[in-house]
Design a protein that fits this description.
Elements: E1 5-10, H1 18-31, E2 36-41, H2 43-46, H3 53-70, E3 77-79, H4 85-94, H5 99-103, H6 106-115, H7 121-135, E4 141-143, H8 149-166, E5 174-176, H9 211-219, H10 236-249, H11 253-259, H12 264-290, H13 294-323
Parallel strand pairs: 1-2, 2-3, 4-5
Helix pairs in contact: 3-12, 4-7, 4-13, 7-8, 9-12, 10-12
The protein binds adenosine-5'-triphosphate and L-tryptophanamide.
Length: 326
């Protein structure tokens, strides 16, 4: 029987952090067994906000290297801009997405506030390109963190409207959100999600952070003035740290609370740092190996693109035909 297909994407911007790992990458690794998987380094999404061209190229390799080092099969990874069909289908979908849908996207609202006067049309249109990514591959499931659910829903909506208007063309995808780690918050501000675009030093734990940096960041993480180590959402700082502990240790919430009964925050934070360091250790040591030869890494990405291009081209051809183009 044909395996169902999983598709997801990650932007080659900033430094990947434990939110990206727990909310997305780790889940992708596990899903490879059950699903035929395709993962995309979405460089066209990255340029929806200004990027330094000299940095972007290196970030594409770094992102791919982290995926490979985490246990993603290199054969299933490609770079978005290597396949023209993404931009082309995005344009076609653009002409089928009402402005009102895009106006409701919370990510746009947040990011456009940060960019102020430099908000480009591409940032507003970001969900159309993401819908194209997903719909080009007859995707069944889209494993993402909580923050991307709204975008996956927009992809479903546009696929449904397109199918109803022009005849069956696209498969309708489902989002898949992990149970633990779907939304890791900033260490310095547990009211905001941990994000690559925030560059304050104590905000995020990066996947390539050395052990001492991880210890320092966790010891300085914002908590409250209480003492007991318990999962209570009304105490966002300690709650976020506990969620991180839960995700890396695999222990249940009652077991974690029992373990730290009467021990206080400092003790808990020390132990959390060691759990995170140990959890990232295999990834960090493999990263050096898989990125040692950049030319080889580039060739793996080119091959990844060659493998999936026929699928994308077939889906694009059908969409164009349905609309009476060309
Ligand atoms: P940016 O802040 O620049 O938008 P990002 O940190 O959100 O970047 P992306 O490349 O947009 O990173 O996201 C890659 C994947 O990581 C997505 O599936 C996203 O849902 C997930 N993700 C991002 N941040 C978090 C977080 N704080 N907690 C859990 N999952 C996250
Ligand atoms: N918007 C996503 C990245 C992304 C994506 C996709 C995820 C681009 N295309 C297709 C899933 C499917 C993000 O910012 N994390």
């Amino acid at each position: 029987m044909k395996r169902r297909r999983a598709f997801s994407g990650i932007q080659p911007t900033g430094n990947l952090h434990i939110g990206n790992y727990l909310g997305a990458i780790r889940q992708w690794v596990a899903l490879q067994v059950e699903f035929e998987s395709i993962f995309c380094v979405v460089d066209l999404h990255a340029i929806t906000v200004p990027q330094d061209p000299r940095v972007l190229k290196g970030k594409i390799r770094e992102t791919a290297g982290i995926l490979f080092a985490s246990g993603i099969d290199p054969k299933t990874v490609f770079v978005q801009s290597h396949i023209c069909a993404h931009a082309e289908l995005a344009w076609i979908l653009n002409c089928n997405i009402p402005m009102g849908w895009l106006n409701r996207m919370t990510q746009f609202k947040e990011k456009s506030q940060r960019q102020r006067e430099r908000v480009m049309a591409g940032l507003f249109d970001y969900p159309a390109l993401m819908a194209a990514d997903i719909l080009l591959y007859e995707t069944d499931i889209v494993p993402v963190g909580e923050d991307q659910k709204q975008h996956v829903e927009l992809a479903r909506d546009v696929a449904q409207v397109f199918n109803a208007t022009y005849g069956l063309t696209f498969k309708i995808p489902e989002p898949l959100i992990p149970e633990a780690g779907a939304r890791i918050m900033g260490l310095d501000d547990p009211g905001k999600k941990m994000s690559k675009s925030e560059d304050r030093p104590g905000h995020a734990i990066y996947l390539l952070d050395p052990p001492d940096a991880i210890r320092a960041k966790i010891m300085h993480a914002t908590t409250d003035s209480l003492r007991d180590v318990r999962f209570e959402e009304s105490r966002p700082g300690i709650y976020n740290l506990l969620v991180i502990y839960e995700a890396f240790s695999g222990l249940s919430r009652p077991d974690i609370e029992a373990r730290f009964e009467g021990r206080g925050y400092a003790d808990f934070k020390r132990e959390l740092a060691e759990v995170v360091i140990a959890g990232l250790n295999p990834l960090q040591s493999r990263y050096q190996e898989v990125t040692a030869d950049p030319a080889f890494l580039d060739s793996q990405l080119a091959e990844g693109g060659n493998r999936v291009r026929p699928l994308a081209e077939k889906a694009l051809r059908l969409a164009k035909e349905r609309m009476g183009l060309g």
